[in-house]
Amino acid sequence: MPEARFRVKRYDPEAPVMIGARYDEFTVPYESSLTVLEGLFYIQEHLDGSLAFRYCCRAAVCGSCAMYINGTYRLACQTNVRHLHGDAITVEPMPHIPLVKDLVSDMTDFFAKYEAIKPYLMRNSKTPDAEIPQSEADRKKLDMPIDCIMCGCCYSSCPSVWGEGSYLGPAALLKAYRFEVDSRDEAGKTRLPSFDNERGIYRCHTITNCVEACPKELNPTEAIQWLKGATVRRRLLGRAK
Amino acid sequence: MIYHELIVVGGGLAGLRAAVEAKKAGVDVAIISQVWPGRSHSGAAQGGVNAALANHPESADDTWEKHAFDTVKGSDYLADQDAVAQMTKDAIPIIYEMEHWGCPFSRFEDGRIAQRPFGGAGYPRTCYGADKTGHYMLHTMVEKAYEAGVAMYVEWFVGRLIVDEGVCRGVVAYDMISGGWTAFGAEAVIMATGGAGRTYGNSTNAIISTGFGMAMAYHTGVPLKDLEFVQFHPTGLLTTNILMTEGARGEGGYLLNDLGERFMERYAPKAMELAPRDITSRSIQTEITEGRGIGGKGYVHLDLRHLGAQKIQEKLPGIRDLAIHFEGVDPIEEPIPIVPSQHYSMGGIDTDMDGATVLPGFFAAGECACVSVHGANRLGGNSLLETVVFGRRAGAAAAAYVKALEEKFDSSTAARRAIAEVEERIDRLADNAVDGEDPYAIRLEMTTTMKEHFGVFRDAATMRVGLDTMYELKERVARAGLRCTVGVFNLDMIRTVELEGMIDVALGIAAGALNRTESRGSHSRTDHPDRDDTNWLKHTLAFYQPEGPRLEMKPVALGMFEPQERTY
């Protein structure tokens, strides 16, 4: 039976003082296939019941288990140990985000920023009895941003977030783009103040770490540049598109 | 003690929709959820949501009545027809409402919401957003709840209900981020915690779909209805049971056996791959049992190659990614190995059409509830629909209930008692830490037993053995040992506490299945192969007793459609 060696970074908020980082090593046996998430469950069930990590869908759609695995942003559920190199699998929480415990990051600010960009469709026109029509071409513009699973990889990877904690970050701005680009949205200038400010779009310096970090292969950088252009158009011409 | 007029447990589509409705009615409502609501299992739904919008060129004369008929026939006539009528009627405005709230449904050329064919449906009426409909609907609903200003307690695990003098008065919950148990006082509670898929070892469901919400209701004396009806989805990925949407067959995908035959011809010559899920799963299982699985092994193929790369990339990009990442198979190049997998709990907390239960102040909606609109077999595309239709109704009914209360009672004594009971239980589990039973060994035995003894095909002998094992596990789980009793994000505690509830729900499934001596919908017995309307056209109610479930029967609401033989 093959075995995988896990090196898991630990953090216990109730421990008196921690000097340096602590890594615990575990050996996990498996039959033919093992994801990192399955490995973490094995550890929690059989080797160390105190291990903390997030989980839910185990099918790469809920965004719970984003982690830093062998130095790369990954979803633990989608990462098979067979595809990892090296003699041990190093599992760490997403860097640059405060911790709750072990692999569980404190996502409070991340979600507060999402809420701050007013992530909902705004309408002034009378609501029709049936659907608001949308052309296939207009709908296609939404394909990229609506696939975001809010896992936080982009946010953790962004040097502008590290440098300025109040920066909204790539995920929230991708969501702002998702609504601003929607042909049905009539927010006009209503949503603008939430991202057209010193903690908004201008803090993106197109470093593109977010593009590389995204497990869904989305492009927040591009979305933010579109928002920059749309914001200028809105200010000068009164329209975004 | 934290107080809100209304507490909604669970932040999936049903819970969010209920909370939004109650908030609109002016009630102080809060959601308590084990995960950030946008991570709920609703988001894993793929293929779509049914509503007779008549947008598809082939569905111009579709109506809610036809949707109702398909649903009732699909349910093998066990669904309550008044509830089905309500759901299929409400479907049309509620899908438009989801669209108005921003849900990014795919579109037809004329700009209307796109619809695709789905299993057991007479018309193409399944509205979809690519193959990620649940994800799109769920995010839209979370965003709507943000806009409405619904309070959310995220990453709190609810451990029990507070019942004071026969009235539900709140819940006790563990704060995963800060640690510790807290009482939430409320005038009413809506349970919206999803299904019990993870009682099975071969489920498509999220790991948090444990059925624990059903168990909490069950333990207070609220009956669970029709638990024995467990849906097996025909197409779960072979190694992980991850869902491959029915939409793949809706778009024209084939099911093939080892001989390369489209074997559905033998079982459902008209509907072929778009027969309802119970029939399709049985057909696949029969092929496997008779040795026509791929290479004689326990799986068949879902073949999409003939659809072409473009159609797969446009209509089914999500399952393509899943097949590549989790099975190492690109559906554009190769057929996908699939196996029937536990998918949905038709049964659940016994409610009326407003989500109300026998316990005053306690409501339920979504998969944890059983209205019943799915009867013995749910049609694909009706579960997302149920969440929003009955989430809304439960939210409205709970809000009306709260507003009609003449005075508000102080339940702090009952709340203190409930917390003390939770803590006593944790202490009891902790006392077993050294020499108690291993909860994870019990969990594995439970999931294996349910998978092997209460699967697609059932018979008395196999089920009796399984039921005995479940009774034994129930005894053992009382002696389960808890190693970690304190601290934040304590998974050992959550998973050990929820296991006791899972075993009680699983035992209810097992007892109901052995008791029902007929075959109906998903409940297929080789020793009783026929449907028996004379004796069994009725719902099962399971009442919790420490020694095992007590079963009663409840009539089915008929009226619109006479039960007929079910062929496709």
**CATH domain class of the domain at 413-525 in chain B:** Mainly Alpha
Unreliably modeled segments of chain A = none
Could you give a short account of the major beta sheet of chain B?
A: 5 strands, parallel
Rg result of chain B: 22 Å
H/E series of chain A, N to C?
EEHEEEEEHHHHHHHH
List the helices and strands and how they pair.
The complex is a heterodimer of chains A (241) and B (568).
Chain A: E1 3-10, E2 22-29, H1 36-47, E3 66-69, E4 72-75, E5 89-92, E6 99-101, E7 104-105, H2 108-116, H3 136-140, H4 153-157, H5 159-163, H6 169-180, H7 192-195, H8 209-213, H9 220-237
Helix pairs in contact in A: 2-6, 6-9
Chain B: E1 2-3, E2 6-9, H1 13-24, E3 29-33, E4 49-50, H2 64-74, H3 81-100, E5 115-116, E6 126-127, H4 133-148, E7 151-154, E8 156-164, E9 167-175, E10 181-185, E11 188-191, H5 212-219, E12 224-225, E13 230-237, H6 247-250, E14 254-256, H7 264-267, H8 277-289, E15 300-303, H9 309-315, H10 317-327, E16 336-345, E17 348-350, E18 362-364, E19 369-370, H11 382-404, H12 412-431, H13 439-453, E20 457-458, H14 460-477, H15 491-515, E21 524-525, H16 533-536, E22 538-543, E23 550-555
Parallel strand pairs in B: 1-10, 2-3, 2-11, 3-7, 11-18, 17-19, 20-21
Antiparallel strand pairs in B: 4-6, 5-6, 8-9, 9-10, 12-17, 12-22, 13-16, 14-15, 15-16, 22-23
Helix pairs in contact in B: 1-4, 1-11, 2-3, 3-11, 5-15, 13-14, 13-15, 14-15
